[in-house]
Recover the amino acids of this structure.
């Protein structure tokens, strides 16, 4: 123990008893003006990436195709693959999702 800091004996502590100072400790001696200067300005609004928007659109089309496939399987249609392919092609060519097709 040195100046009342640390262990009286390192026995049984699993350490060598060496006391180190905490370098990661932040002192609070900065003034309010200094802390305000350190704060970052709010982030600027960025437009979403076009590739991400295109991927999201394709993903929505695939989800709609899967829902159509499940619906057709439940109703026991025969040519499910051709219906789904037509639906996918129609949705992709329009640029929007065809909500429901009447079969």
């Amino acid at each position: 123990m040195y100046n009342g800091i640390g262990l009286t004996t390192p026995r049984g502590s699993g350490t060598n008893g060496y006391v180190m100072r905490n370098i990661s400790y932040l002192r609070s001696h900065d003034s309010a003006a200094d802390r305000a200067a350190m704060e970052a300005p709010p982030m600027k609004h960025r437009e979403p990436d076009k590739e991400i928007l295109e991927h999201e659109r394709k993903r929505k089309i695939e989800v709609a195709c899967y829902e159509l496939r499940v619906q057709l399987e439940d109703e026991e249609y025969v040519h499910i693959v051709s219906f789904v392919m037509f639906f996918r092609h129609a949705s992709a060519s329009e640029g929007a999702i065809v909500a429901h097709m009447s079969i």
About this structure: The two ends are 86 Å apart (CA to CA). Helices lie at 32-38, 50-74, 80-94. Residues 65 and 88 are 6 Å apart (CA to CA).
